[in-house]
Amino acid sequence: MIVAERKPVEEIIESIQGSQKILIAGCNECVTVCEAGGKKEVGVLASTLRMHFMKEGEKVEIDEVTLERQCDHEYLEEIRNKIDLYDVVVSLACGVGVQFMAEKYFSTPVLPGVNTSFMGVTEERGVWSERCQGCGECILGKTAGICPISRCAKRLLNGPCGGSTDGKCELSKDLDCAWQLIIDRLKELNRLDDYEKLMPIKDWSTERAGGPRKVIREDVRL
Amino acid sequence: MSVKTPSRLEKILDEGHLAVTSECGPPRGSDGEVIAKKAEMIRNYVDAVNITDNQTSVTRLCSLAACIRLKLMGVEPILQMVTRDRNRIALQSDILGAASFDVHNILCLSGDHQQFGDNAQGQNVFDIDSMQLIQTVRLMRDQGKFLGGDPIERPPNMFVGAAANPFADPFEIRVPRLAKKIAAGVEFIQTQCIYNLDKFELWMKQARDRGLHEKVSILAGVTPFKSAGMAKYMKNRVPGMDVPDEVVKRMSGVPKEKQAQEGIDICVESIQRLKEVEGVRGFHVMAIEWEEKVPEIVERGGLYPRPKVNE
């Protein structure tokens, strides 16, 4: 999933200064799972803002909605009839949702309520960590199912570097060395000999480096 | 073996001498004389001098310019090049720049993460890694080609080196990793500073068991401690460094004013022991911001005078 973190409420208040009618829009997908922008967080943010404006003596109306997804036309359409009632929308979806909403509702300011962090997993309740950087050419088959691009701080294809200590990355004792994990799993799979295969220079043109990406599937287009 | 490049370091190794290299860190400013002064102190005691490339990710005068300065002084430079800061275009371009001044040695590294430096908020590049940089230089030199496949007019002619850390984890892949660098095309290795000699000897034995010592010239890295504080710092704070307790104890056991001498003594004793290790083909003496002590270490290590080779 896409993992996001809630923006500080002070930053959100600053960004909506002067607005009279505000819609807080959550998303029922990834940001719900990582507890940053689902229905619950929409409610918490709306209450916080209402209390803030009440204390300041400002008359600001705040509505709540949580869409099934903000990255699909059909769900975003659900608010078409009422979008013009609002001065601003604070979207708690990831950066994808914020942008798609802004594309669709061109004349309404849409502001981000979360910082989109990475594609990752829930390690345990309250702990999420990165697993994929969407490089566009998956090498997991060669690295024992552990991605050095997203999990090695230097994204070394032929690691580990000299800083790997006790299974941890030189950046932090809280961070596993991806190459230690790869080696451990190669061993488990009885494939440690594969470690000596040189990983060739990567074609990064399928990654961010190649410019904004697009997938077109003629076979599934309507 | 026969030499493939005009590198003095390669010739010395090829003739079977124990090679001696050292390193100079460029200044945090534009005064190139700083490098010249450091090089003057050590030029007669070493065969070649590494110039570090923004080591520990702290911004400094660039390695390439400092290498050119050494070259113009008649000192043989080893261009350290990290893949952290430049993509494949810039790396190949700088290799050509160095080659245009006949810099004949390169040390291929990934580089410390920028978190440790003065620009922790900066991007890193890591378009390629150190193994792939080795492959890149060999392609440019041996096939006269750019990574993109186009031919190079007057290809670079460099003796290709890399680092090896026998002490990082996991230990079991330390020798396979060396084999991998050899497969990538590395010709000389400078090791991480050696304080745990037993572990280094084990690593060398494993390398010998696979015949790797005959495929690559291994220079043992040594660094004298200036103080007990430095020994403790290296032990506890520097990732991938293995400083045994007894070494720290020995440094701490002498009065402060004698610790520097003790550090040099330990370094010289290490060289003497390492000379006996089969497969050690020379020494890389890294006297960090202490270049003036290199002559003493080299002399007392029995590595002086340096051999003359035809150039």
Overview of the molecule:
The complex is a heterodimer of chains A (222) and B (311). Chain A is elongated. In chain A, the strands form three sheets. In chain A, strands 3-2-4-5 form a four-stranded parallel sheet, with helices on both faces. Chain A has a three-stranded antiparallel sheet with strand order 1-6-7. A two-stranded antiparallel sheet of chain A has the order 8-9. Chain A has helices at 9-15, 30-33, 39-55, 73-76, 95-104, 148-151, 178-188, and strands spanning 2-6, 21-27, 61-67, 88-91, 110-112, 114-124, 127-132, 168-169, 172-176. By secondary structure, chain A is an alpha/beta fold. With 311 residues, chain B is an alpha/beta fold. Chain B is globular and about 60 Å long. The chains are: A alpha/beta (222), B alpha/beta (311). The interface between A and B is medium-sized, with 28 and 33 residues.
General form of chain A: elongated
Largest sheet of chain B: 8 strands, parallel, barrel
- Kindly name the structural category of chain B: alpha/beta
Overall mean confidence score, pLDDT of chain B: 97
The termini of chain A sit apart by 27 Å
Specify which chain pair forms the largest interface.
Answer: A-B, 28 and 33 residues
**Total number of strands of chain B:** 8
How large a portion of the residues of chain B is in β-strands, by DSSP E? 5-15%
Could you state the order of secondary-structure elements of chain B as H and E?
Answer: HEHEHEHEHEHEHEHHHEH
Fraction of residues in β-strands of chain A: 15-25%
Q: What's the SSE pattern of chain A?
A: EHEHHEHEHEEEHEEH
Name the assembly state. heterodimer
The tally of helices of chain A reads 7
Can you give the helix content of chain A as a percent range? Answer: 25-40%
Reading side by side through the largest sheet of chain A, how are the strands ordered?
A: 3-2-4-5
- Helix percent of chain B reads 25-40%
Straight-line distance between termini of chain B = 18 Å
Radius of gyration of chain B: 19 Å
The residue-averaged pLDDT of chain A reads 97
Radius of gyration of chain A: 22 Å
What's the helix count of chain B?
11
